[in-house]
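Summarise what follows for lecture notes:
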Amino acid sequence: MKRRKLAVAAGFCLSFLLGTLLNVLFIPAFDPQHQQSAGVTHSLAGSPSDVSGEAEHSSSRRRWDLAQQIRERYEEVLRYQRRQQQHRAAAAPGARLLMRPSERRLMDLAPRRLAPSSSSERSPARSKAPLGTPWAPSTKLELPLGPLRLGCRDISNVSDVHYLGSGYTKAVYKAVLNRSLAVALKSVDFGGHDIDHCVKVYGALEDCYRLASYKIIKEMVLLERLRHPHVLQLYGYCYQDSNDISDTLTTITELGSPLEMIQLLQTSWEDRFRICFSLVRLLHYLAHSPLGSVTLLDFRPRQFVIVDGELKVTDLDDASTEETSCTSNRDCFMEFPARNFTLPCSVEGKCQSMNEKRNLYNAYRFFFTYLLPHSAPASLRPLLDAIVNATGELHWGIDTTTAHLERVLHLYKSGLYLENTTRTPKSDYKRMPETTIVNDDYRCWPSYHHKGCLLSVFDVTEAMEVCESHSQCRAFVLTNQTTWTGRQLVYFKMGSTVIMSDHDKTTYVKVVN
């Protein structure tokens, strides 16, 4: 019994010594200096100075992130300018490209790069600015644009200002300058999504404005570089102080009417074809522009306006000339709500014609399917159906699509689409020169006049065919007005009760046997 007690006591002492030894060897906190510093750190973890330090670091990180976004958009503007300069240099080989003072000023704002000291430094990694000193360009950029008609002096003499609408970034106003010229004024929308979201995240209104304003600057550069009948004209711009922010930017552009698809569906087929033809001409130009192939990333009807019956693109801040890089066809995947496409990857490592095909399919799904085939002349419908089907499957590129639409236009303007139709009127008509019919109107669809039946015809024979296809038609009046294709406008009447003199019109009355 005594030996057992001694054994137990010895085991207890041995376990105590082993536990102490393990604590000394393996527990990090045994070091007095470490323990002291850890205690200090623990005691300060919840102190106000620690919280303020974290807040300052977070604030610096946000400022740096915002500055980086501003820098990226600024450099995007520079890229488009450099591409234009390269195009001009290529167009005049051997000629030295001179830089205007405003161009030098803009280029001087770019961060300078150190010359490489050895071959191993030819592609150095971009160094990051310290958190406390983020890089930012000047608040005002004088862009090397061509001669512009309007500026701040004209904006100071503005009248009849009306709000037209806004998007994520910009607000658009209709205004009259110098009491004579109606224009559109575009500026950053301080109540818009971009500014509102940026201020909530970064809490810096002026920097958030600068970030949004670069989208307008990019659009200005593209409007000036991409001069085309179906690109909205840039008239000028102005920097002014507004909302406690210096150098806020306002652009002055051509004024157009918003594109309303519901209204377009109620217009004549000829006018709807004109919209589609304008769009195809625009996309053909964008595919072969001086800046390269341009795609409209935010392709929607609201990005276009109508000016004198022609379609024009007005919103280019989301346009891009970057071609998607690839290593295989799998990288060239285009996804749309109803269809997906995989394009070939070229030997240069770029997705083949992706910018062009993206524009073309968007034209198909937003415009062609609704505007091209419906109420078209019967002989043209097979050609129009082929265009719609081919663009919907992306079997054609923009060059082939343009050629087919030009063929349709030629057939329509020349009257060749009428060759395979019977052109012998069933009724006789009495011709009455220099006269018109008052009242006796009826409505038809589609019509150029909402209270009567006003249609376009190729010739008098087609007018007779139209009259005979309308059960209520008893007469028609040829005017001296023509449409954009040169076709004559004709009023169709349900009677000839009152006939009056009119030197610009000719009346045809159906003879009743």
